[in-house]
Amino acid sequence: SNVFIVFLDSTHSEYSWKDDFKPKFLPYAKSINYLSLSHLKNDLDPIKNRYKNAINYIDHLFSKFLTTLKNNNLYDDSLIVFTGDHGEEFFEDGALFHGSHLSDYQLQIPIIYKLINNDNKPNTVTTHIDIFPTILSQIFPNENFDHFYDGTSIFNENRSPYIISAKQRGNFTPNELLITKNDTRLYGKINTSNKNMRFEIDEFKNIGEENIESEVTKAFEDLIH
User: Fold this and answer.
1) What is the pTM (predicted TM-score) of this model?
2) Which domain holds residue 52?
3) Residue 61 and residue 53: Cα distance in Å, rounded?
């Protein structure tokens, strides 16, 4: 058996596709001028269409890949994961592109599994760190590899209910966090002043009925002590 990890870069700036691919979404921007983007809030459709065309191109490539597997009788025995590294925002929440703040537009991405050993479809929130534990749980169903990883298999019934996202800070350690549980969002910072690390809550958004503020604070304190 072989493992292939393929990176498709078309949806990264400047959103590209091959010359022989016919763009579907028109009109689209021929290029992206980053110096003038702040003045284009009311005229983003050409840039959005360029992004959609790049997505459509990746969809085209992925379709060819799946067809090749099927034509060579490899599809049924293949374990496939398709995902993205981040979302892309177009001023829906006050910013453009990605990496600027912890919003659903920038964070939420698809993680699509084509599995081979399990018909069960777990109803769970997942993230990138769960991918390899899930793959190994399919290849070695009687083994548990979760202790090797920060994530857990999506089939693990004892999965943590939390998803933690961190805002990038370049070469510095991230200290702004978004903690998610179901429909609840908890935004905060890690404060390391006076050599006493603690999680300070900046904003609490509760779309559902669950209040996780106290339990998250306690869990963080238990983690660092």
Assistant:
1) 0.80
2) 1-114
3) 12
